[in-house]
Amino acid sequence: MSKHSIHIEIIDEYFEFSLADLCQCCGVQAEAIIDMVEEGLLTPVGTSPSNWRFTGTAQRKVEITLHLQRDLRINLPGAALALELMEEIDMLRSKLQIKG
Amino acid sequence: MEYKDYYKIMGIKRDATQNEIKRAYRKLARKYHPDVSKISDAEERFKEVGEAYEVLKDPEKRAAYDQLGSNWQQGQDFQPPPGWQDGFEFSGGGYTEANSAHFSDFFEDLFGRAGGAEFQQARGRHFQMKGEDHHAKVGVSLEDAYHGARRAITLKMPEVDTTGHLVTHDRKLNVKIPKGVTQGQRIRLRGQGGPGVGDAPAGDLYLEIDLLPHPIYTVDGRDVYVDLPVTPWEAALGEKVSIPTLGGKVEMKIPVGSQSGSKLRLKGRGLPGKKKGDQFVVIKIETPEAKTEEQKELYRRMQKEMNFNPRHRLGV
């Protein structure tokens, strides 16, 4: 068992990524992220790429988009639509679970 | 080593055309894609289908695979016959978009590994590359999500050994689950992923929280829901009752005239966080069974005195 302390970060809606951070942790070029922002798939706070701030949830969105593009040959508008529908399905599933 | 029936995995006949194979793959890839599918073993199925497609879409590999014969059964113990691939030219090449690192021993024994030569070459040039990020799901009870917990987890870590072969070993980590984690949330453990190549840093380990189903609570984000059974007189007259919350019991007044489905909010009693969740208490009126003659008489008296038709909105 590892004894040394492990640095933990919670990647949630309060976590902030810069454009460079997001590129690094998703292994993509800035152009790919800029395309996703232009498609409305990601909505950073800030006026220009140099001061954009993304929440932790952006990382998952980028990864899913890259997977859908690679595995299912979906283009960016298609991936954006798939993500919106997946979010809606998750929300409806959650409501169904609450209604029991 | 187990035999893989790639035709069975893809749900196609052995004489399927290349177009049928492509169509079957695309359909199954959508069905089992781990980011889309809610099937519990979707990731395994997706990898299996990817491997099957890697072989069947390539006429050379397919012909070689077909040469093994059709008498093998999925899962049957298997060793490739000596010299079985004579005359074919695919070993170590021709890999496409599929992630060959996830292919089975069966595949590797038949067709070799992709990327091995390139990897060795890269090492020889003092190649530097940050280690791979690793991802794992960790099941967390709602109580642990509320209070935080320490969790011992064992990860299967793939590594390329000195001969260029992929091997896995168990790695145990004692991880702190911070309080207030929610469904699907990620925790990043810096430097705990795959080792870097050359002097480059190790990758990160991402743990994705999977909240386990709870016998009494359901969760939506940080909000917690609980059904509260109440008697008809508690609902009609109002009453102070005990409510379970993740932080312990609290007293709450049921408002006079509550109905089944009425939702009461206990502010800040949901999952903790920068913005605390609430707990919602959903009233469920339960009607006691009339067992004795006196109890039945009580219902008859109510019938007479209440003059109540719950179906009046239905026009009946």
Q: Can you tell me about this structure?
A:
The complex is a heterodimer of chains A (100) and B (316). Chain A has helices spanning 19-26, 30-38, 57-72, 76-99; strands spanning 8-11, 16-17, 54-55. Chain A is mainly alpha-helical and 100 residues long. In chain A, strands 2-3 form a two-stranded antiparallel sheet. In chain A, helix 3 (57-72) packs across helix 4. The longest helix of chain A has 24 residues, at 76-99. The radius of gyration of chain A is 16 Å and the shape is globular. Chain B has 3 domains: 6-114, Helix Hairpins (Orthogonal Bundle), CATH 1.10.287.110; 134-211, Urease metallochaperone UreE, N-terminal domain (HSP40/DNAj peptide-binding domain); 217-306, Sandwich (HSP40/DNAj peptide-binding domain), CATH 2.60.260.20. Chain B is built from 9 helices and 11 strands. Chain B has helices at residues 6-10, 18-32, 42-56, 59-66, 105-111, 116-124, 142-147, 232-237, 293-306; strands spanning 134-140, 149-160, 166-177, 186-189, 205-211, 217-220, 223-230, 239-243, 250-254, 263-266, 279-285. In chain B, the strands form 4 sheets. A 4-stranded mixed beta sheet of chain B has the order 6-7-11-10. Chain B has a 3-stranded mixed beta sheet with strand order 1-5-4. A two-stranded antiparallel sheet of chain B has the order 2-3. In chain B, helix 2 packs antiparallel against helix 3 (42-56). The radius of gyration of chain B is 30 Å and the shape is elongated. The relative contact order of chain B is 0.09. Mean pLDDT of chain B is 85; it is low at 91-97 and 115-124. The chains are: A mainly alpha (100), B alpha+beta (316). The A-B interface holds A 1-2, 6-12, 14, 25, 27, 56, 59-60, 63-64, 67-68, 70-72, 82, 86, 94-95, 97-98, 100 and B 26, 29-30, 33-36, 46, 97, 133, 152, 172-176, 178, 181-182, 184-192, 204, 206, 218-220, 225, 227, 273-274.
